[in-house]
Amino acid sequence: MSVSDLHGSAASVSPLVGHVAGASTEDGTGNGPAGGHLTARHYGSPLVEQQRRDEGVPGVVDGWDHVALVVEGAGGREWINGFISQKTDAMSTGTATSSLLLDAHGRVEQVFGIAAPADGVLLLDVAAERADALQDFLTKMIFWADVTVQRPALARLSVVGTLPGVDSPGPGRSGTDAPAVVPSAVYWTTRTAGTLPVTDLWVPRDGVAAAWDALVAAGAEPTGGMAADALRLRDRRPLLGVDTDARLIPHEVPAFLGTVGAEATRLADVAEGPTSAAVHLNKGCYRGQETVSRVQNLGQPPRRLVLLQLDGSLNQLPAVGADITAGGRTVGRIGRTVQDADFGPVALALVKRQVIEAVAAGTAPPLEADGVAAAVDPDDLRVDGSVKPGRAAVDRLRGKA
Question: Is residue 1 a contact partner of residue 15, using CB atoms and an 8 Å limit?
């Protein structure tokens, strides 16, 4: 089936909710989106679903709440390179990564997967509630470029772990050769969730139930959004508008930058391909790039995304977006709480950088979120004391170095 044969449709509740036994769109937190979840939060045993994935048993996650946007055209990779944070002008066919779209002030508007599964084709994986805005932006940016932006009627099914009949070539790969288990798949991409391999299969929406049944018959166990969220939180990957606010800049989410350290930004190398993280520091100008360069070269982000461990003894959970306080002073905001099979209730939160440093030094008052005691995960208590390259250059000019 070619992309031109497909037509997109508006977000709706997944047909798998009524198709799979035990499916429930409720997770007991009361913190779901206003219109309700589009996919099952669990299939009867959310903590067991996560534990089974950790034990190596393969699972399948309903990705009906994601949309595929397809850019077609010989110059598509060079065209889109001009206004996103990833470097795609030298992206090789068969690869996959992620990217951001920033506003003029460097604030994050979109987070999406981007893959090159075939020559002349780019596949964008975007949250359903943000797909209209991204498609509208891309369409308006076409001008004279020989590209098209389409929304094919595809649904995403994610295989977590290793499943016979579904190849797992490692993260950052993509293609159009359908696996034997699901011959209807139009595209596939690979990534990781926690330490687990994930293969995202894009299948026709009207055939999603048949594809799901085929994966289950091959040994994949139904896995709900709660278990998938627990894995996502381990990677410190936020949901925009849920775990973040409208002021978010890339450097506040370490996962967006990867392991770049304190290196300076530099001019683009035409032959250099994309990075595994969403922000490529060495590329030409794009909207919001000035903020990225300024923070990387001269300063520190005002906040940082961290994992909070929450007190589960009160039988209450913080509301999404609730203030985080320390000594009665607001120091951040919390995202959606997730029940982790190992750690209990946890959530991503944006917390002032100085407060994180004070927590690391043992000088901060106790943290609370909506009246619930909270603690920053020890893995996130990192203090960056490095001298930024731009600041070091200024100091040398002033004779301070």
Answer: no
